[in-house]
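Dear colleagues,

For the upcoming journal club I promised to circulate an example of a predicted protein-ligand complex. I picked one with nickel (II) ion because it came up in last month's discussion. The inputs are reproduced below in full, followed by the predicted structure.
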Amino acid sequence: MAMRKSDREVFLGSVLGNEQPPAHLARAVIEEKLRNAIIDGSLPSGTALRQQELATLFGVSRMPVREALRQLEAQSLLRVETHKGAVVAPLITEDAVDAYALRILLESEALRLSIPFLDAEDLAAARAYIEQLEVETDYAQIGRLNRMFHLSLYAKTANKRLMVLVEQGLNEEERFLRFNLASMGLGKLSQDDHWELLRLAEAKDVEQVVAALQHHLNRGVQAVTRYLSDKAAEASKPSRSRKKTPA
Ligand code: NI
């Protein structure tokens, strides 16, 4: 969707507000605002984010904007396209199934490293997230709570670089979930999985909890596969409005 520059600036202003953060907080504030707007869909995929426009909007130099965009790119929320610069990444890409396969590897390892060291406080935090998920009805919150629950099980993973990759995968999933939870009917099933994960984590049964996580993430693989095949079917459909073929 091509917008005239002034329209784009008005649009960005309406989505991001016009708060002018103090210089030392600029990068963090800009990153957080963009991140929320991308995850909640108010900045749709394909939206171009230009450094100068954002710098003007926030009343800062380009440097903190560039840094914020770089962080978001590292989290797979933006991608850099030739001629367009940074654009909001698609909700889900053709390689999403590969992404899940990688998450299964990474998160299994994060669990193995973390589970033996989880203390009562960590487990209480995990339980609190599941309990909130039981009553939450706002999909944006459900996506966030799901991510926080999973992260809580990795709380004692000491490998920071592994956790950067794990968080990247969880961010991607959160975005997808926000838009698709309603249609996927995963809600109850996922919660059964979450309770089971917690029970096994409390029992410190590392291999069982890893198996349960793999089972849980495979539901995601199925949901993504369905989403992509529906989308492909949609795209290959001739425009139906013209002629109706009798059944
Ligand atoms: Ni989950």
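Two points we might discuss: Confidence is low (pLDDT under 50) at residues 241-247. The CA atoms of residues 127 and 198 lie 7 Å apart.

See you all on Thursday,
B. R.
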